Amino acid sequence: MPYQPLSPDLWTVQPEPGTGLVIVSTDLGWDFDDLCALVTAARLIDNLVVVTTDEVSGLRADLARRMLDLLGRTDVEVIQGIDLGGQRRFLPDPGQEIPDYIPPTREERGESSISRLVDLVIDSPHHPVHWVGCGPMTELADLLGAAPEVSEQMLVTQMGGWLDTYRRPDRAEHNLGTNTLAAGIALRMLPAPRLVLADHTNNPAIRVTPDWDMIRALDSEHAPEWARLLSAHFHRWVARGYDGSWMHDPLALSAALGYPFVTFGEARVRIEDDARLYRDPYGRPMRVSETVRYQPFVEWLHETVVTW
After folding, report:
1. Please, which residues have CB within 8 angstroms of residue 236's CB and are 6 or more apart in sequence?
2. pTM over 0.90
């Protein structure tokens, strides 16, 4: 996609979190958009914590640490999340092996990670703490189960779910469907979660392909090492036969930070056992995405990522 210079008035706003804590939950290491969202978060958020979800024997946490260090963000804490033992959705480095799943003991199943998250939310000097969900909701559900009171100290923006249109109407959207129990618990416990729906992220306007100027810039011989890592991950993704990467998670991140690309509306939503969502006048109150200004978002993403 040819890049056009930004008109700053399209998107320049003061992000909502300010100096407050932002926790990004991510299953990075598979689809390119997760790693792109991490780069964007690291470049924009001062008080950032990253927690991995749907872990693959710690490989996601290792990749997050590697990318953050290359970006000069050694200050950002990375918390290793829970390995669910499902499909091993991870793109390894050349020669890197994906370990077989070994069920953790009760003591190993993320208790220390969840305790750390509880402490971070409760001890934060600024509330609400912003939780940006870019993957399954396992750690968030465990956090709420361990300390239900923190539900009123957090503003959760979750990429996930669909209400009207989806590429697979016979199942829940991936982030909610990977751990349906966790999604049901978290969405029921939170007072008013915000969902950036797949109805709006599955849009060709935000499908990054090899001909995008952003990818050409990342491929440049003058690109820094972190950009080359991001580029390598994109090309590994495309090499698996995918025709691009939809920027689901960077769009959700932009909404969490208060950029004016996504508009939300109130909805009553019923949550089924398989984590599919339906409009229902007796359902849970949520704020769901209604419209997206795609072109300004794409311009903002390019400007944020391709700067060195």
Report:
1. 91
2. yes
